[in-house]
From TrEMBL, chains A, B, C, D, E, F:
Similarity comment text for this entry: Belongs to the carbohydrate kinase PfkB family.
Domain Carbohydrate kinase PfkB: 1-314
Record-given protein name: 2-dehydro-3-deoxygluconokinase
Keyword terms, alphabetized: Kinase, Transferase
Pfam family, one: PfkB
InterPro entries: Carb_kinase_PfkB-like, PfkB_dom, Ribokinase-like
Source taxonomy: Bacteria, Pseudomonadati, Gemmatimonadota, Longimicrobiia, Longimicrobiales
Coiled-coil zones: none
Length: 332, 332, 332, 332, 332, 332
């Protein structure tokens, strides 16, 4: 069984019942999530040995976060405990015209305040097949940033493949240019995941006009990322938000070695929960690549998996390989 | 900050969980609502100083109604307490083919049995900018009817602008002609809100064929109302009930002074809760007018606000000015 | 299988979740109940053929009431449909120091407004073994009162045994003396159920000092009722409300023919739901009497059944004969 | 009032809240259902005297099943009690791309292990107007199979009309050919309900190519069934599963006596709960036929009723005749 | 109507359902609370004009906090909006042996980071009758501390009576001596509320041995506080935690002018929610004092009110004057 | 960290909300539990490396069971997948007079039908410190019985300590004498857990009169078990069921080597959930023994832990070592 390590911040998500507005009822549903944790949970459901690395506070909230990861089948041997709190985000899913609303309360988390040298990446990555991190992690603090860069460095040294999902969150970069650290993180990776807007904002790589996500623009962006930063593959996602309840979803994958750009099937999805769509795409692409599926098939697998995610409550994509393949076959 | 006074009956609404039929589970969700209360709650969320006037029983049910109003930010200084009960209505939202089902149990409420002279309208309307009432109020009893007419009279005297939403409910007028009292209520108002059917049934003003709601028919109805009853503006709503889950929603606004008829953008809405759509339209039109927005812009604001309402559980439109403007800008 | 007919008003009860105050959350749990309906439901669970007679509105609320009765196994062939509404009562159970709070909204129900001759008691009581009614029924309206008296008359004529539970509710008798009609109802019955306070207030039969419920006082009251009104047996209940969460519960049964007064075992109960305790006592006494148990044993059965009721949410005593006998054996 | 008897297995259905995956929350909603029970419940709501015959375990689960049937208005006089357990099925409704998922745990139920001669069909069917059974029943065990065949035989003898819904469930027939027993069950029935695939698999009657459900293919299948097995009418359903949330739904009815094939209106339904659609069709067709509606109208009634079912949570179609007729009129 | 101003931090409280451990289910019940907010809410229910002053973040969480206050009838005109977050605390109520568990996540709240001069106390306290603050407020930050001291100074200047509830929370004072600022806050107040332990820890006033709460020790502590700090009255609470589900509750009130020490009735309470007990005592003591009740009666009122609080879910004491007086009369 | 292996059947438990009767609402709360699984979960919370061995069906129900174990921190590497179903039990907790009610539906589970040689006990127990099994396991089927005996044999061979909890369930042994296999299982174990009744029924070891659980009787039973079967220690539990809501709880531990009998402190517990009390005692005794605590202290730890369990919903004892020690210290 392949082993994938992912590293990032886990948060508690609190959402109102049904399609209510936040705090309309005195009830909140708890979920746990975070970009890399979502990847780790997806991978566990896909049958991969999935190790997740983070830092959780040593209290009942941190215990609950740990239990939630374990319930999904994620391995948590390398989870640190400490710090003052777990970050929280409040999510109102919206409905049709009423857009998704997210209120973040994530500052000063145990993860953001971790020490740069708290993790022994040689030990953690020993024997791993893949390492995954997002562009959110270096934005969260000095410790996470240095640790993520160190992890990528060690992974390269040990021959562990690396993927980076840009995950552009402007609010986390206020007053700072994300490019220097993100370019460092992405340089030489095996797979970079993002969209043209994130490529421009986080890597300083501009290709085509903003808002235009034609295949030509995607190709230009992918080629530029590969050329400038040496990424072996670039995966790009396209989400068309028709409304809070309906999204168009498709992706493309550029392989530097062949210069091929594969464009996926398009899914028009009645959305149950949009959070974690991109993360489930990254996870399924890692799975399918490790499974040896050719690029075009890996892309279809990842796209179907992430379209399916949009129909599942919570951040985690609780689907098996068989369920994803059934989508592909049904629509093939 | 502008101050708007509204007057009418507040009821308790009881609905089953999710998309269940009434009493399929032994659970009911409580809401509070009523045409003018919905207007008052919307206005409070839009940042207006919103005073609501009603009569609630002096028991735990009345206390809960009062708390619900206050939670929305509505001012309740002029709420009377007394009478035997609060009216109740049971609402099953339906789904797709299965239509909305409402069971009313509103007779003999504290509001319906209030005395005609229970309210000192000179005091209540002193310093107000706007007074709003619906055509439901005079149908509920002698006291409410006389009090509503007195309120309109005082408002005119004090220079307070007046709006009336026809809100035609045939069951409340069984065996009676609504025209005499409703015409009196509407006469000379600043804004009348309704639809061609209500205009015909409640004002005895007929224009065009029933069921036809073309712009020409709307204009004819509006012109007739203005000409006969001296209303300065007439707002007309068009709801196309595709199914319990999907409505078309658009509106028009006729301004007597200019003879202009503005037709709004059309919204095709996946409906979460259809109750209170017209009320939220009236509220947002009052807000936008008081805010000094020109007729066409005020209409777009009110239409977007009320389309948004259809996506929110309960009777109240819990949306801010920024949220409504974002809809307009996104779709503009 | 024995057949028992009971007649009275069914209402919808609405209660908040857990130990909350009314309307603290926007959730209500629906129950259905009413003194004679509670008797009917208890009897059905005890395996008796239990016919309940009432009048329910022909709407979704009435349908739900009917479904609730049927689910308990109550026969509803003789339930009339009509009238404007179902009565409602809001129940907050309280906890410890915080007392039970009930808000009634029962006026103008379909039952209260039924016609005096709406029911054909000869047909309904044909072949029945027992008829049960409470002192609430004649308080609710002219129709119910006349119909109840007629039912008792027909029952006597047909040799159907009759029980009456006084169930004194002062609020229903404001400005009226309950004695004339209640004495008429009780006269000659096979079993009267009540407590010394109700005997005084509703029958005008005074024995002993108020507040004193010693065996001597109970005997005096029972003897007086038997002597004055010809009741063959008088059952008296004693509830000591230590707090909303703890009640003492015991009963006594006087048999006119023998002059014996049996006093039951005393139960100290941690109360889950106090509503329907007396009704479940009456039902179990009817069952045990029909089952041929001697007076002392019938009394112990009825007392255990009603103590058990206090531990069950809702108005209905959902317990089997085996469960009641197990209580007696365990404590015997 | 007409009396219809149906016979089959009742199970407990457990479903997660909202659109969650199974066991995502530690909460399950209980429903009860089963092909013939769904027919019986629908008929009760349509105002028919509906008798349901099954065997339920003599424990709290069986008691709950019985209470659920009674709450719907189904008559349960002929329900046997015994056996070890009630079958259970876990249903995840899915959403859009995510398909319905059902996990069965139905083996060794009290019904499956009933004796072949446990029921006195002469007594049960005496005075009945119609008998209904599905093709699931004979698959469940020797006892149910023999009893179902005996019931059909007795029905024919007593002049009770018979309908059979094929309800093909491949998992129940593993390693067995359903044709011998199913052909016996269907032979000479008044109405057979199914679809071309079920006709081929369960009756060995092939007409047209698989997957093709054109009117021509439907007619061919219906004619073959009538010719070979002597069915007087053949009703065929067509469900196009666009996604878990959207189905196309239409039906056709072939009348052997006239050779006419009526095709129903097509409904495109936003699905709330797909379970029980076919059962509600059968029930409404029985009702409309007994009500004397001509074939084309009976078919429209049954199709509208079953389209409406798809919008109702649970297996049972809780709709009245008026509600179904309103759908037809609204769309007519 | 009397007007009371209170000032402090409001937090969101999150609790698991029923008697579960934290995060045992993925559900949390939201409450809002905080020492002075609890006082303000209690006062509003007691019919006092209750103004609460705090600082809430300008986001959906702050909006919900504001709505919760308003729903209780608290006036929020002087609530500031700003800062990064609302403090949160997770409360597991425990049961019997299993003790209450609280996890705080309150650092960096909008209240803690408010500016020292953000509030215009002359304006806010103009016309007020009473000002209340707890010893928690100065522990939370420089701004709250300075503002609280300023409020007390202004109150004295304007003749507004002042109460201070010590509310000792060791975790908030780690590494700091609470005495200097708390003594300043308490000096010259009209009523100080606390217990002997808090008096020792926060005021540096020691009287008697630790753990001993006899009347003599209470008197000694009260006399010392009055003598050293000039408090006109000292109220002391005694809570005996038998288990998480059962508390003993009694209080004493020392009046400096007379030297009298009144000891209250003792309540043994089955606890539903222990949070806010002391706050409800302070609120009811303020109410009863403003109502002109003599010391001994005011103390009994406050003790009954706070015993009642222990039976109510949430932090707020939702009880009326009549309900409290009923407890006194019932037990009197 | 010590490693403990436990082996037995895991079931799904379904319970109604609050204090309701089974199926009173259409809602069930899911838990997972089973005697040895409860031990395994307790040990994981106590910080032990806890390996649980069972067989779960390869479907969504088995997946949920696995996720539930993992969430508690139990290691599931040696869990087999297969068989037809997971056993289910329905639990109504009761209240006061109303006793606990359990309905089992556990036949034909994947565990009961496992093969005798399905598990490689040499591999599983390699490096373990302790093996635990209950007397339920051999009752469930040939495979579990043979596998349990083999596990004990291998454990002895590898020097792994062994504990057996008798857990007498008469319904599982109908028509069979449990003694032969249970004696074999218990022979030579390090700790046997039981009560005098189970010792008599399952081991055929009688000491003292039935129903008498004095220290003398306990000692006699323990000595007999040690003498006859060579158990090194015998732990005996005493539960006095005052009512469904209140239990007395105490234990005793006999050490064969010293002949000492330690009797624990007595706890009088307000019960939240009685299921799993004995299992949590066994788990905590294993923990404390492995932790090197002397017999008397280990017994107090285990008794406090299991008393605490009675206050926690579900079968699992979610408490830490610190929480248990706090109970001991508080009561010490």
């Amino acid at each position: 069984m392949k082993r994938v390590v992912s590293f990032g911040e886990l948060m508690m998500r609190l959402s109102p019942p049904g399609s209510e507005r936040l705090f309309q009822s005195p009830q909140l549903r708890t979920f746990f999530g975070g970009s890399e944790a979502n990847v780790a949970a997806s991978l566990a459901h896909l049958g991969v040995r999935s190790d997740y690395v983070t830092r959780l506070p040593a209290n009942a909230v941190g215990d609950a976060a740990l239990a939630a990861l374990r319930a999904e089948g994620v391995r948590t041997n390398n989870v640190l405990r400490g710090g003052d709190r777990l970050g929280i985000y409040f999510v109102e899913s919206g409905a049709d015209l009423r857009a998704l609303r997210v209120v973040y309360d994530r500052a000063n988390s145990g993860f953001a305040t971790m020490a740069a040298d708290a993790l022994d990446w040689e030990m953690i990555l020993h024997g791993a097949d893949w390492f995954h991190v997002s562009g959110i992690t270096p934005a969260l603090g000095e410790g996470p940033s240095a640790s993520a860069l160190r992890a990528v460095e060690v992974a390269r040294h040990l021959g562990v493949r690396v993927s980076v999902d840009l995950n552009y969150r402007p609010a986390l970069w206020t007053g700072r240019d994300p490019a220097p650290v993100t370019r460092e993180l992405v340089r030489g990776c095996d797979v970079m995941v993002g969209n043209p807007g994130a490529v421009a904002a986080m890597l300083g790589v501009r290709a085509g006009e903003p808002g235009n996500e034609s295949d030509g623009v995607l190709r230009a962006a992918a080629e530029a990322v590969s050329a400038e930063l040496g990424c072996k593959a670039v995966a790009l996602t396209r989400r068309e938000v028709v409304s809070a309840s309906e999204h168009g979803w498709s992706t493309a994958l550029y392989t530097a070695a062949t210069g091929e750009l594969h464009a996926s099937r398009h899914y028009q999805v009645q959305v149950v929960d949009r959070v974690g769509g991109g993360d489930s795409f990254a996870a399924a692409l890692i799975y399918a690549t490790l499974d040896g599926r050719p690029a075009a098939q890996a892309l279809e697998f990842a796209t179907a998996a992430s379209a399916l995610k949009l129909t599942i409550p919570g951040d985690f994509n609780r689907v098996t390989v068989d369920e994803v393949d059934a989508i592909i076959n049904r629509n093939g």
